[in-house]
UniProtKB/TrEMBL annotation:
Pfam families: MR_MLE_C, MR_MLE_N
The protein's name: D-galactonate dehydratase family protein
PANTHER family in alphabetical order: D-GALACTONATE DEHYDRATASE-RELATED, STARVATION-SENSING PROTEIN RSPA
GO biological process: amino acid catabolic process; carbohydrate catabolic process
MF (Gene Ontology): magnesium ion binding; mannonate dehydratase activity
PROSITE patterns from the UniProt entry: MR_MLE_1
Residue ranges annotated for the Mandelate racemase/muconate lactonizing enzyme C-terminal domain, each copy included: 129-264
Length: 409
């Protein structure tokens, strides 16, 4: 089953996506997601200039060998651009192998371990009444677990908070990348955040009761001792997890947080390799692995990472915002269904324009996601629709403290 063609498709149906399509001599095509929010064209170039020429003529069935060839063969290892490019190749080859077998990918990964993957949605509000409306809208949409992000008094624009309220037919999910020539700059005050967040969770628990799983993302903005303080303050509200408490590069920061709080911890959306996790897993410093299939080298690498996590009793909580394309999301759903140590799956629904370009077969029912039984990943790409949405330069925001110092966004 030789590879005869490989091409990238860059499209922007509301936001930018980079997709790799591999075609075999018998006409089977596979799709891989290579989207790296704010740096999309770098991965596109990496694939077109350095990877696609190596794929032509290779055996599409040799997935592990191709992964090692691209990873070890480049000499320069790891990094978000490299690992997103390898991920796209890996996903596309698994898509092809599963289509050739006439099976959904999860069957090749060992078959279903559950009936569906518990998904969490993103509720947010500029203030508590708006947040409550957003939580109710998510409950009405069927979500059984909800991430809570809210405005902070005194700050204009806060990570994770949609700019407008639900209703009026307007899309209200939070979309941080903005189509500007330079990044938008936001202002941040960690002490104001630390004062406010526990009061929000107290109000949410008082309104919605003790059962609903609640999550929160600190977006890498706290020092270890600040994160420890927040984790302790949130203990009465029984969070499902506190995510990205401290900057992602610093694995040992989680030691200090762990010493002080029983609030479960999740991290890893900016990681791209199993070696980013070795301390976190071996010392049991986290409860959930947040990596994306798209950014961690694909299905092959993610399966190995999750198997290592299982050894230490750590569960999955794969990244799934709208900057993961429906192809990357489908790959995560097949893993979610197959692995034993599944925890939860992030799920922000894509826009209507995105779903016109990427035709999905996965479904969301009663709070659970299922990848469908369509052979392969179960996603197709409509080239005509994709061509209607050309690439648009967009950046994630940059964050500054109130005195102007650049801070983690
Ligand atoms: Mg996060």
């Amino acid at each position: 089953m030789k590879i005869t063609a490989a091409e990238t498709i860059v499209t922007s149906p509301g936001r930018n996506f980079v997709t790799l399509r591999i075609t075999t001599e018998d006409g089977i095509t596979g799709l891989g997601d290579a989207t790296l929010n704010g740096r999309e064209l770098s991965v596109d170039s990496y694939l077109r200039d350095h990877v696609v020429p190596l794929l032509i003529g290779r055996d599409a069935g040799r997935i592990e060998d191709t992964w090692q060839y691209l990873y070890r063969g480049a000499y320069w290892r790891r990094g978000p651009v490299t690992m997103a490019a390898i991920a796209a190749v890996d996903m596309a080859l698994w898509d092809i192998k599963a289509k050739a077998a006439g099976m959904p990918l999860y069957q090749l990964l060992g078959g279903a371990s559950r009936t569906g993957a518990l998904a969490y949605g993103h509720a947010s509000g500029r203030d508590t009444p708006e947040l409550f409306d957003s939580i109710r809208a998510h409950l009405d949409a069927g979500y059984r677990a909800i991430r809570i992000q809210t405005g902070i008094p005194g700050l204009d624009s806060v990570y994770g908070v949609a700019a407008s309220a639900a209703g009026g037919g307007e899309r209200y999910d939070y979309e941080p990348a903005r189509p500007t020539a330079v990044p938008v700059e936001e202002t941040w005050d960690t002490r104001a955040y630390l004062r406010h967040i526990p009061t929000v969770f107290e109000a949410v628990r008082a309104e919605f009761g003790p059962e609903l799983p609640l999550l929160h993302d600190g977006h890498h903005r706290m020092t270890p001792i600040q994160a420890a303080k927040l984790g302790k303050a949130l203990e009465p509200y029984d969070l499902f997890w506190l995510e990205d408490a401290t900057p992602g590069e610093d694995q040992t920061a989680l030691r200090l947080i762990r010493q002080h709080t029983t609030t479960p911890l999740a991290i890893g959306e900016v990681f791209n390799h199993v070696h980013d996790y070795t301390t976190l897993l071996s010392e049991r410093l986290i409860d959930y692995v947040r990596s994306a299939v798209t950014h961690t080298g694909g299905v092959t690498a993610m399966k190995k990472l999750l198997d290592l996590a299982a050894v230490y009793g750590v569960k999955s909580g794969m990244h799934g915002p709208t900057d993961i394309s429906p192809v990357g999301q489908a790959a995560a759903l097949h893993l979610d269904l197959a692995i034993h140590n599944f925890g939860i799956q992030e799920y922000m629904r894509h826009s209507a324009d995105t779903l016109e370009v990427f035709r999905t077969s996965y479904r969301f029912e009663n709070g659970l996601l299922h990848p469908s039984d369509t052979p392969g990943l179960g996603v197709t790409l409509d080239d005509t629709a994709a061509a209607r949405f050309p690439y648009q330069q967009a950046y994630l925001p940059v964050n500054r403290l109130t005195d102007g110092t650049v801070h983690d966004w």
